[in-house]
Amino acid sequence: MRIAVIGDIHRHWDDQDVRLIDREELDLVLFTGDLGGATQRGARAVAASIATLRTPSLVVPGNHDGASLGQLLGEVVHSRPLIRAFAPGHGARSSALQRALGPVPVGAYSLHRFGSLDVLCGRPHSMGGPTLSFEPAMRRSHGISSLEESAQRLRGLVERSEAQDLLILAHNGPAGLGERRDDIWGCDFKKEEGDFGDPDLRAAVDHAHELGRPLRAVVAGHMHTRLRGGGQRRWTLRERGVLYVNAAQVPRHRRGRRHHVLLTLESGHVEAEERWL
Ligand SMILES: [Fe+2]
Fold it and tell me: What is the share, in percent, of the chain residues with pLDDT greater than 90?
């Protein structure tokens, strides 16, 4: 099985991407989210283009998908009043994005079967780190009001998966894979660095290990591979038989070429390679 992972798009997607990806004759295209930039208009144009892909596809929403500038600011400065004040409209904006994606499903706390592979979509809209992003919106749309509730939901999905192979798709990766700025989901925007992975996704991965589930890969983005202050983050890591991929090459259009990560899944083993079409 050949799968393309498209990292955070941030408006770097057009109909030429559709042609190039379809020409690859892949089995599946996975999007880690953040389709637009600061405004929803850019995101909707990207979504409308993704909707025309002939290859089966799946999108998990990022923190920019459905969020207003006020919400994002509230999250960055950890202001509960701001987060609450700007929460109304998040659901409607997320639904508009879903409509623009047409036949392409939006994954959030969900399982999707493609042949012998289950793709488990994690928590949508994650901004990373030890707090639940967009809590009022997450409560309204998904009935989740804490990271512990989110972990519980994800563990339940791991238990439900009965496919031969399991892959997790999320916007941000799991906690527990390093605390340095250049680690796969390490924090590059604080002097003290640190682990900026999602603790609830870590709980899901640990649960898969405990149950002996055939978890082959975890693919996500959000923490851009080009680091603030210079340097590159590592984008792939293998641990306990699981391949972790951070596909967030931002911008993904460079010098006329377009980035994706190609996953090859064969007999329960996954390999990843970066490709520029
Ligand atoms: Fe993001």
Answer: 92
Residue ranges making up the domain that contains 106: 2-276
Closest CA to 246 of 134, 154, 128: 128
> Cα(103) to centroid of ligand 1, in Å?
23
- pLDDT 10s digits, 92-139: 999 999 999 999 999 999 999 999 999 999 999 999 999 999 999 999
CB atoms within 10 A of CB 140: 15
Report the separation in Å between the CA atom of 172 and the middle of ligand 1, taken as the mean of its atom positions. 7
What separation in Å is there between the alpha carbon of 162 and the centre of ligand 1?
A: 30
pTM for the complete prediction?
0.97
Distance 241 CA to ligand 1 centre (A): 26
Is 154 in contact with 123 (CB distance < 8 Å)?
yes
Looking at residue 271, its amino acid is: E
CATH number, domain of 128, equals: 3.60.21.10
Residues in the chain: 277
Q: How many domains does the chain have?
A: 1
